[in-house]
Amino acid sequence: MLPRLAWGDAVGNQVRYLQGLLRRWGHASDIFAETWDDACKDQVRPVRDYAREAGRDAVLVVHHSFESRLVPFIARAPGRKVLVYHNVTPARLFEGFERKVAAACDGARDELLALRPHVERAFAYSRFSAEELVAAGYRNVSVLPFAIDWKAFDTPPDPALHAELGDGCANVLFVGRAVPSKKVDDVLRVFTAYQKLYQPMSRLVVAGYLHRDGAYGAYLHGLKDVLGADRVRFLGRVSAAQLSACFATATTYLSMSRHEGFGVPLLEAMYRGVPVVAYGAAAVPETMGGAGLTTLSDDPAEVAELLAVMERNVALRGQVIAAQRARLASLSQDAVAEQVRAAFEDMLSGRSAPSASSEASAASVELVCPGFTVRPDAPASRLVRSLAEKLPGARILALRPRGAEPSLELGPENVGGVPVWHFTADQPPGRAPASLPGSSSLETAVRVSSAPVVLLGVDTEVARAVLPHVKERAWGAYESSLSGPSIEQARQQLGQRLVVLEPSRSADAVRALLGGVTRAT
After folding, report:
1. CA-CA distance, 227 to 304, in Å (whole number)?
2. pLDDT in tens, 501-519
3. Do 198 and 214 fall within a single domain?
4. Are the CB atoms for 109 and 64 separated by under 8 Å?
5. Which residue blocks in 79-166 are alpha helix, DSSP H?
6. Backbone φ and ψ of 174, nearest 5°
7. Does residue 200 sit within a domain?
8. 263-296 core/surface letters (b: 16 or more CB in 10 A; e: else)
9. What are phi and psi of 234, to 5 degrees?
10. 276 pairs with which residues across the strands?
11. DSSP string, 403-437
12. What is residue 38's three-state secondary structure?
């Protein structure tokens, strides 16, 4: 079950793939959706049909990636329920461009929490996504391998487009919807730096849906004019043959996306022999699997240098392509099918999954300090250490260090003698004074907790995301040198529970926060 079945969509492709496996293994399987593309009309049934026909022994596999408004229906539907989580893009990545999409992303994350009591097992397509499920308190969380129909990439290239793009220019390619979360604007910035600093005879090719008259589409075209890059092609939607032509003529594949639950085009580029350079946000490092070049920097000049090295260093290029081929070896159709069968074993056999919960033990106070480990000398980090020493049962929630992998075992780690619960950042944490990124899993953990919350740094992305949901039980602190909309928003929501941190008078902030939290507990 999913809200919409679309042709060519990554979620829709996985739904059809799983249905094919289930039928091959001898199980009756139907796809139910609220809406669908005309191309899918013979593959799908209306959601309302499920409740009429399903028995108590049915298993409902719920695919979640966007707001569906199906939670009440799922809650009362017959049969056992299993969740397949494709990840929900953080709403902040659409702010300023797509207000309705941002609201729908917020709604989808609310639904993720609302679905939890109704499912007995949950799957995700990356450890990054699975970590959020564990943080939300889902039981029996596992990672599914992502299935790809490699034969679909063997379409011969469109001759006309192949001839046009194969004119000797170094082609930098990006494939995907041109939406704010994909950061096509950063792709454009990197390409401009590459063209001006290293390779004048270069071309940028963007293949994928682009709403030219929408806010983000207009922004991209305006940015292109401002940057002054030459030979930038926004192709829009392309056919399979045209896409093959794009890959066949590409020198490098570039992704600067800020959020991927998996990232199929990265593997498609690997399959087609195109070296990949990708910003290591969300599940991108997992998708890359050590192949290609994953960068923790989003600085255009630094990433442009990687493109230049990839183009000019023939030996390195060969090594990268060979490593990418090796990465794909574990994703063969047979290997993936066997892993899916093993993951689904309890469901397929009719056995209920174990009921052990992944929820962490209750904390007396949630001390949210995203930079505690990555910026240990910051005033907020020193303040939270003092609070933790004086609040028995409190736990510190912080971002994992750069390069650390997501985990399905969320629990305390000793950092300088203090237990800390670490969560994966949505993007690599930059070095100070760059602002800290958000973290879907950390934010989810705060939301599902019932304990008082202390936000050490109300200007952080994490605090901005969780404050509307926890403001009645929250306190906050900010450095006196800071100002801006996020501080003002926190002041409006917290009032006297917002404390100013003067570096020379940190004991005052500790006393004020301790007094408020102690009275609440």
Report:
1. 15
2. 987 788 999 999 999 898 8
3. yes
4. no
5. 99-115, 127-135, 159-165
6. -130, 135
7. yes
8. bbbbbbbbbbebbbbbbbbbbbbbbbbebbbbbe
9. -95, 100
10. 253
11. TPPP-S---EEEETTEEEEEE--SSPPPPTTSPPP
12. helix
Does 306 lie in the same domain as 157? Answer: yes
Non-local CB neighbours of 11 within 8 Å, separated by 6+ positions: 2, 63, 65, 86
- Single out the residue of 374, 327, 368, 396 nearest to residue 462, CA to CA: 368
Sheet with 45-46, edge to edge strand ranges: 2-5, 32-36, 45-46
In this structure, are 124 and 167 located in the same domain? Answer: no
In a domain, 359, yes or no: no
CA atoms within 13 A on the CB side of 61: 19
| 260 lies in the same domain as 230 | yes
Q: How far apart are CA 476 and CA 493, in angstroms?
A: 10
CATH of the domain at 307: 3.40.50.2000
Report the alpha-carbon distance of residue 269 to residue 21 in Å, rounded. Answer: 25
Confidence at residue 354, expressed as pLDDT on a 0 to 100 scale: 63
Q: Mean of the per-residue pLDDT values for the chain?
A: 93
For residue 49, tell me if it sits in a domain.
Answer: yes
Measure CA 428 to chain center: 12
Q: What is the 3-state secondary structure (H, E, C) of 1-21?
A: CEEEECCCCHHHHHHHHHHHH
Q: Is residue 338 part of a domain?
A: no
Query: How long, in residues, is the chain?
Result: 521
Name 429's Cβ contacts closer than 8 Å, sequence gap at least 6. Answer: 371, 374, 399, 401, 402, 436, 437
C-alpha–C-alpha distance, residues 427 and 174, integer Å: 19
Q: What is the pLDDT of residues 414-459, one digit of tens each?
A: 998 899 999 999 999 988 888 999 999 999 999 999 999 999 999 9
Cβ-contact 367, 394 below 8 angstroms: yes
Residues with Cβ within 8 Å of 513's Cβ and at least 6 positions away in sequence, in order, are 387, 454, 475, 477, 499
Residue with tokens 């001898």: 26
User: What is the DSSP code (8-state) at residue 362?
Assistant: P
Examine the pLDDT at 154 and tell me if it is beyond 50.
yes
- The answer to whether the beta carbons of residues 427 and 400 sit under 8 Å apart is no
Number of H helices and E strands in the chain, helices first, is 20, 20
- Taking residues 179-205, report their average pLDDT: 98
Statement to judge: residues 141 and 263 lie in one domain: no
Residue with tokens 């619960």: 421
Number of domains composing the chain: 3
Residue 118 CB neighbours (<10 A): 16
Domain that holds residue 374: 366-520
